[in-house]
């Protein structure tokens, strides 16, 4: 390990077991997958786990051995929060329009099954996340171990599949999800105490959370939802991730590969 980059095995606890787990997964994922002389365009996802991915890459920026290469990395965000993570860690920001081919992308997930199919969008960032992750040659998931599904998607993540929709279509999509696709429950995501009315995404759309119980065939469900008029994208990420790092609070990490 280069001087200036903290060793993973010597890290002090953050005083919060869940944060320790997220950091362990993210740091391991960066250390084992980011190839400094090969990867130039790096996707940075959204959520609370990927914060530690940006932090780790930022640590390499301050190390003399890697500094020059890392300062040339172009980081592609998946939304407003992600953009700020890139800037806060003094990394170089680029856009997907400028760099539509990404070498490697890192992101969190809400649930991951054994085939590395994912539910994402718990933080309402799914459309840009899917744009970035499907534009990446390699897509790596970082998560704490709660995100690992015992079998089918929908088992641990009970909030429903996040679906980004065009606002004017919300009644129609809601009806179609219930009547045509037999969702058990469909909610327009609300801002809660932070905002009266629905959550508005970084793309000025709404999010629907549609509960289908345990999802035995995520690809088929994704396709069916995607065909509804008004749907922009679903939070089912199919055959996209190649590795998932699941962190535990003791600093150990489980790696699942395809
Ligand atoms: O919309 C949000 C994203 O899909 C996040 O990557 C996902 O919700 C996981 O977030 P976290 O790392 O905070 O659990």
TrEMBL record:
<dbReference type="GO" id="GO:0006014">
    <property type="term" value="P:D-ribose metabolic process"/>
</dbReference>
<dbReference type="Pfam" id="PF06026">
    <property type="entry name" value="Rib_5-P_isom_A"/>
</dbReference>
<comment type="pathway">
    <text>Carbohydrate degradation; pentose phosphate pathway; D-ribose 5-phosphate from D-ribulose 5-phosphate (non-oxidative stage): step 1/1.</text>
</comment>
<dbReference type="GO" id="GO:0009052">
    <property type="term" value="P:pentose-phosphate shunt, non-oxidative branch"/>
</dbReference>
<dbReference type="GO" id="GO:0005737">
    <property type="term" value="C:cytoplasm"/>
</dbReference>
<dbReference type="GO" id="GO:0004751">
    <property type="term" value="F:ribose-5-phosphate isomerase activity"/>
</dbReference>
<dbReference type="InterPro" id="IPR004788">
    <property type="entry name" value="Ribose5P_isomerase_type_A"/>
</dbReference>
<comment type="similarity">
    <text>Belongs to the ribose 5-phosphate isomerase family.</text>
</comment>
<dbReference type="InterPro" id="IPR037171">
    <property type="entry name" value="NagB/RpiA_transferase-like"/>
</dbReference>
<protein>
    <recommendedName>
        <fullName>Ribose-5-phosphate isomerase</fullName>
        <ecNumber>5.3.1.6</ecNumber>
    </recommendedName>
</protein>
<keyword id="KW-0413">Isomerase</keyword>
